[in-house]
Amino acid sequence: MTTINKQIHLVRRPVGEPTEACFALVEKTLGDPGPGQVLVRNRFLSLDPYMRGRMDEAKSYAQPQALNEVMVGATSGEVLVSNHPDFKAGDTFAAKFGLGWQTHAIVKGEHIIKVDASRVPLSYYVGLLGMPGATAWYGTMKILEPAAGQTLVVTAATGAVGGVVGQLAKAHGARVVGIAGGTAKCDYAVREMGFDACIDYKAPGWKEAFKAATPDGVDRVFENVGGEIFDTILARMNPFGRIAVCGLISGYNGTPMPIANFRSVLVNKLRIQGFIISDHLEFWPQAHKELADLVTAGRLKYRESVAEGLESAPGAFLAMLKGGNFGKQIVRL
Ligand SMILES: NC(=O)c1ccc[n+]([C@@H]2O[C@H](COP(=O)([O-])OP(=O)(O)OC[C@H]3O[C@@H](n4cnc5c(N)ncnc54)[C@H](OP(=O)(O)O)[C@@H]3O)[C@@H](O)[C@H]2O)c1
Fold first, then answer.
1. Which residues' Cβ are closer than 6 Å to ligand 1?
2. Which residue, of 71, 187, 209, 259, has the greatest Cβ tally within 10 A?
3. Are residues 192 and 307 in the same domain?
4. What number of helices (H) and strands (E) belong to the chain?
């Protein structure tokens, strides 16, 4: 049996902002899976900001994405053919290391995990119950440890990570102020996700609005963005505040990020901790169990932006980097 496998390759490294010309659609033929292997159909692909970093050759915490090879990315899907004792055709899976921007793959059975797509949708396993959910949980629960009486600020507040952070922090008693782009996102953060306030950083006068929304200063920050937004938050920090640096998306295309308010780190004796979630795999099962319990109990809102078809992945990815997503950006393959 042969299967046509559609893939998206990185064919050009971006200079500054990436474009569709960085990607190419490629078709390959797959044969039959060998002993211990499975042939799978990816149904959902996660598009994540870290992929922008992988497109560069610069030294980072992970190897660059190789040119002319399938783009890296988390997937969930369905087993089509199994030569592995733990799987049968029709089983739903999440890939342990991500199978990339492609419709199909042949992998060892050990590279996928069987998942229950009846309790939560299969797509959640690349988001809430995948890497972004673990990131939100770890940064919130293990670094920030929010509590009643504190004000916690989260940036990219309605995104895959930010939305979960704010809701977890609320559940642990903190006052939560989000920062997001646009009134629709900010309305959603307050009305649907229960944030106490959300500031639209694209609106004129947002810094004054942020100040007004944090009358008692800021105790905890989950930082996803960097740049001017981070600098503005720094100036509002309370003594002994904590900052989890999760992402710096405003600088991913190489935009410099000068900081004017670094003095706040010293005078407020701040604790700032960067983290990369792949260093904390031991917490993923606990994080995913708690998040699955919350979402199935209706106590956590989880929103997705769904692009249709592999061909739409580059465009959806480029849009997501600029805030075109509203919730977790995925592709239905
Ligand atoms: N450390 C880790 O292990 C780890 C793991 C996962 C994710 N992350 C980081 O966490 C952050 C959020 O990731 P995510 O997957 O949840 O993505 P996301 O928030 O769902 O999507 C990215 C969002 O970033 C915001 N954004 C883009 N450019 C911006 C700019 N110049 N200024 C302000 N906001 C901007 C946009 O939201 P608005 O429309 O609101 O501007 C956009 O929707 C990223 O920085 C990512 O790199 C880190």
1. 48-50, 132, 135, 156, 159-162, 180-181, 185, 224-225, 229, 246-247, 249-250, 275-277, 320-323, 325, 328-329
2. 71
3. no
4. 9, 15
DSSP string, 109-141: GGGEEE--TTTS-GGGGGTTTSHHHHHHHIIII
Pull the structure tokens for residue 163: 């939305």
Query: In angstroms, what CA-CA distances link 117 with 78, 226, 329?
Result: 10, 36, 19
User: Between the CA of residue 8 and those of 19, 118, 157, 188, 232, what are the distances in Å?
Assistant: 14, 30, 29, 33, 39
Note whether 197 and 150 are same-domain residues.
Answer: yes
Terminal C-alpha separation, the chain:
21
Q: Is residue 327 part of a domain?
A: yes
Measured between alpha carbons, how far is residue 296 from residues 21, 32, 293 in Å? Answer: 41, 38, 5
| Gyration radius (Cα) of the chain, Å | 20
* Rounded distance from Cα 154 to ligand 1 centre (Å): 11
- What's the CA gap between 150 and 86, in Å, rounded? 47
Last residue of a domain, one of 263, 278, 293: 278
Residues 36-62: pLDDT tens digits? 999 999 999 999 999 999 999 988 888
Contact 115, 76 (CB under 8 A): yes
Q: Are residues 239 and 138 in the same domain?
A: yes
Q: What is the mean pLDDT of the chain?
A: 97
Q: In total, how many domains does the chain have?
A: 2
In this prediction, residue 133 carries a pLDDT of 98
Could you tell which of 129, 177, 224 is best to mutate to test the pocket of ligand 1, judged by most ligand atoms within 8 Å of the CB? 224
- Of the candidates 246, 285, 279, 53, the one whose C-alpha atom is nearest the C-alpha of residue 159 is 246
Whole-number pLDDT of residue 1: 82
What is the pTM assigned to this prediction?
0.98
